[in-house]
Amino acid sequence: VGMRLETGLISQDAVNERFKKQSEVQDATHAAALKQFDAGNSEMDKTIAENLRDAAKADKERVKLQGKGGDRLDTSTTQNVDELLLCELTKALKAHEDGWLWDLVNSVKPIFLIGDMGSAKTSMAVSLGLIREKLGHIVFRIADKHLNGENSDKWNLLRAEVRHDNNSSILEALQNQIERRSERINQRPTEKEQFILDEFTQLAKISKEANVLIPLFVTSTYSDTRKAKELFIGVTHSFTNASFGDGVFELRQRGWLIEKFSVNGETPIPRVVIRTGLKDLNGNNLEDVEKTLPSWFRPELIHGHFNDSPINFDK
Fold first, then answer.
1. Distance between CA 275 and CA 256 in Å, rounded?
2. What span, in angstroms and rounded, lies between the C-alpha atoms of 4 and 44?
3. CA 52 to CA 58: how far, in whole Å?
4. Which one of 54, 96, 234, 261 has the lowest number of neighbouring Cβ atoms within 10 Å?
5. Which strand ranges, in their side-by-side order, compose the sheet holding 111-115?
6. Is 174 helix (H, G, I), strand (E, B) or coil?
7. φ, ψ for residue 163 (rounded to 5)?
8. pLDDT one-digit tens code per residue, 104-118
9. Contact of 9 with 2, CB cutoff 8 Å
10. Cα separation, 122 vs 33, whole angstroms
11. Alpha carbon distance 261, 267 (integer Å)
12. For residues 225 and 111, is the Cβ–Cβ distance under 8 A?
C-alpha cells in the first residue's frame, strides 16, 4: 500500500527507508543525551566528593569546638566522618599502581623495610601503622632506641600500648613477644594487633644472649605471627645473616622485603623496590619489582587526614 503525498504516491520501500533514517536520528540523539548525562554525573560525583571532604572537615571542627565548650561530643558524627575519610584513603591506596600499597596494608605477612640512612624507612613504617590503626588494628608494641629522640614526632602519632626505647628493654620485648605469640595462638584471637620494631640491624651484636635470641625471634616472626594475628613491621639497614642470624634465610622469603632509597643520605625519593612479597595470579613469587610511594604517603599527612586536614588525593 502506498502513502499519498501532494506529489503522488511513495512506495513501501521509500516509507521504510524514511522510518529507518528517522530511527537512526533518534538513536544518535539518545546516545548523545546519554553521553551528556554521564558527563554530568561524573562532574556531579566529583563535586559531591569535594563537598563531602569539606563537610568532613567542618564536622570535625564542630565536634572539637563542642568538646572545648564542655558539651557532649557527637560520637556518631565523628564516627561517620572517620568512616568517610577512611573510605577515601582506602580508595586512593587501591588506585595507586595496581593497588600494591593496599595489598601491603592488608597483608598478614611480616614486613621488613631496608635502605640507607635518610630513605624514610621509619616514616613508611609509621604510615603503615597509622592506616592499620584506622582499620581497627591496635598498636600493641613499638620499639626503637630513638623512640624519644629524632623519631619521636613520628612515633607519637601512634597510640601504642607498650613502648621500648633502649637496647635492654628492646631485647626483653623480643623475648616477651615470642611468648605472647604462643599465648595468642592458643587463645585463637579474632582481632589483629601490631608490633613495629625499628633499628633491628645491630641488635644481634649487643651481647651473646642477644646473638642467640635474634634467630629465635626471626623464626617466630615468620612462623607464628599469622596464627597469632600479629601485624609485624621491622626496620633495618641490611638484610644479612649478621643481622638475622644463621638458618633463617628460607624463612625470610615468606614475608615482604621492601627497599627504600635516598639520593644523598638525607632526602628520600619515592622509589621503592619490592625484593620479595609480591605474587602473580598463579601464586608465583615476584622479585625486585619497581614501585613508588605517592607523595601523600607520609605519617604527618595521614594523621592530618583524620585530624582536620583531609588529603586531596586528586592532586
1. 8
2. 50
3. 10
4. 54
5. 162-164, 138-143, 193-197, 230-236, 111-115, 256-262, 268-276, 289-292
6. helix
7. -130, 145
8. 999 999 999 999 889
9. yes
10. 52
11. 9
12. no
Cβ-count burial 152-167 (b if 16+ within 10 Å, e if not): eebbebbebeebbbeb
**CA–CA gap between residue 226 and residue 232 (Å, rounded):** 9
Q: Which amino acid belongs to residue 1?
A: V
d(CA 20, CA 13): 10
Whole-prediction pTM = 0.76
- The CA distance from 207 to 213, in Å, is 10
* pLDDT digits (tens), the chain, 315 positions: 444 544 555 666 665 676 676 776 666 666 666 656 555 555 655 555 566 666 656 555 555 554 444 444 455 666 788 899 999 999 999 999 999 999 999 999 999 999 988 999 999 999 999 999 999 999 999 999 889 888 899 999 999 999 999 999 999 999 999 999 999 999 999 999 999 999 877 787 788 888 889 889 999 999 999 999 999 999 988 776 666 766 666 777 789 999 999 998 889 999 999 999 999 999 898 999 999 999 999 999 999 999 999 999 987
